[in-house]
């Protein structure tokens, strides 16, 4: 009785071993096919997700009239910088303008369905987010010609420092804003980048939030800004201008 049990157990173990080996064999045999399948799936997925940067650049031609060829904005912040901004936030902003949940009279006609449908919004956002505006003047070699110098300097964007209590600004920013806008104010996902943006544009937006003309966040973080003194807002912006160059 006992011996029979032992034999049965041994046999079961052997069967198990055989099954395991067969599985290993099958996995080895099929691995190349799995890879091939993954490759095909990856190739199929690319056209569905990648945005058309050339198309985005072309669309940006209509934006350049106000925001500049490289999206650096202008007129001292009447037109905000849009280059290097988070793609998800650019898309969200354009949809908000189109739906008039954020009022932007100059831009409204450009965002109408005929002008800018969803695919265009994704393409132009992908293009704008890819533009890097350096915060340092390039160093030139004697051999660089005038045109090379001009092209290299054209994109440089440095926001001037502004007066304010930097310690207070830092304290409030890191405690109350960094969780969404990031420790270095570069933004995150749909939360916009604030560093490198015109100071007076940012101030105008904060005032609009406080007046309730623009909605700051779904969970109503407009409340955060409304609890701050005007001098706090100034201090935060002064602090943000110090974040442009991480080496400093
Ligand atoms: C006629 C001028 C004009 C044109 C053309 C224009 N914009 Fe704007 N845009 C503005 C102004 C003005 C604002 C700022 C509105 C405000 O103060 O709230 C703005 C704001 C924005 C913002 C929000 C920025 C932020 O930080 O919240 C984005 C994104 C934007 N524009 C993208 C575009 C794109 C993309 C195009 C081209 C399809 C475009 N704009 C064309 C004038 C223009
Ligand atoms: C819970 C997340 C969250 C927190 C915390 C937060 N923000 Fe924001 N902020 C957002 C979102 C989302 C937007 C974009 C809203 C929209 O679509 O208009 C935004 C937009 C802004 C803008 C406008 C940017 C632009 O380009 O137009 C400014 C300025 C701003 N926030 C400042 C602050 C400051 C200062 C604090 C801290 C006192 C703060 N935020 C805290 C989520 C947050």
Give a quick precis of the structure.
By secondary structure, the chain is mainly α. It has helices spanning 2-49, 53-67, 87-99, 108-111, 118-130, 146-154, 166-181, 199-210, 222-226, 230-241.
Structure description:
The chain is an all-alpha fold. It folds into 3 domains: 1-50; 53-154, Cytochrome c-like domain (Cytochrome Bc1 Complex, Chain D, domain 2); 166-241, Cytochrome c-like domain (Cytochrome Bc1 Complex, Chain D, domain 2). Helices cover 59% and strands 0% of the residues. It is built from 10 helices and no strands. It has helices spanning 2-49, 53-67, 87-99, 108-111, 118-130, 146-154, 166-181, 199-210, 222-226, 230-241. Helix 3 (87-99) packs antiparallel against helix 5 (118-130) and helix 7 (166-181) crosses helix 10 (230-241). The longest helix is centred in the first third of the chain and has 48 residues, at 2-49. Mean pLDDT is 85; it is low at 18-28. The structure holds heme C (HEC) (2 copies). The site of one heme C (HEC) has 25 residues, from helix 3, helix 7, helix 8 and helix 9.
Which helices and strands occur, and which strands form pairs?
Blueprint: H1 2-49, H2 53-67, H3 87-99, H4 108-111, H5 118-130, H6 146-154, H7 166-181, H8 199-210, H9 222-226, H10 230-241
The structure holds heme C (2 copies).
């Amino acid at each position: 009785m006992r011996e029979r049990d032992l034999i049965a157990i041994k046999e079961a173990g052997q069967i198990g071993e055989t099954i395991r080996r067969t599985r290993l064999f099958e996995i080895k045999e099929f691995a190349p096919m799995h890879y091939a399948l993954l490759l095909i799936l990856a190739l199929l997925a690319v056209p569905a997700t990648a945005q058309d940067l050339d198309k985005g650049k072309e669309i940006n031609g209509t934006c350049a009239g106000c925001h500049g060829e490289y999206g650096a904005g202008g007129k001292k912040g009447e037109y905000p910088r849009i280059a290097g901004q988070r793609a998800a936030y650019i898309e969200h902003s354009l949809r908000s303008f189109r739906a008039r949940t954020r009022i932007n009279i100059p831009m409204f006609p450009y965002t109408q369905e005929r002008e800018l449908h969803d695919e265009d919004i994704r393409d132009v956002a992908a293009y704008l987010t890819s533009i890097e505006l350096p915060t340092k003047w390039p160093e030139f070699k004697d051999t660089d010609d005038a045109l090379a110098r001009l092209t290299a300097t054209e994109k440089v964007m440095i926001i001037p420092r502004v007066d304010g209590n930097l310690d207070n600004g830092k304290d409030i920013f890191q405690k109350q804003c960094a969780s969404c806008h990031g420790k270095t104010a570069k933004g995150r996902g749909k939360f916009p980048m604030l560093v490198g943006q015109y100071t007076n544009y940012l101030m105008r937006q904060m005032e609009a939030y406080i007046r309730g003309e623009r909605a700051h966040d779904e969970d109503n973080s407009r409340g955060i800004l409304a609890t701050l003194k005007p001098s706090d807002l100034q201090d935060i912006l002064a602090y943000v201008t110090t974040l442009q160059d991480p080496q400093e």
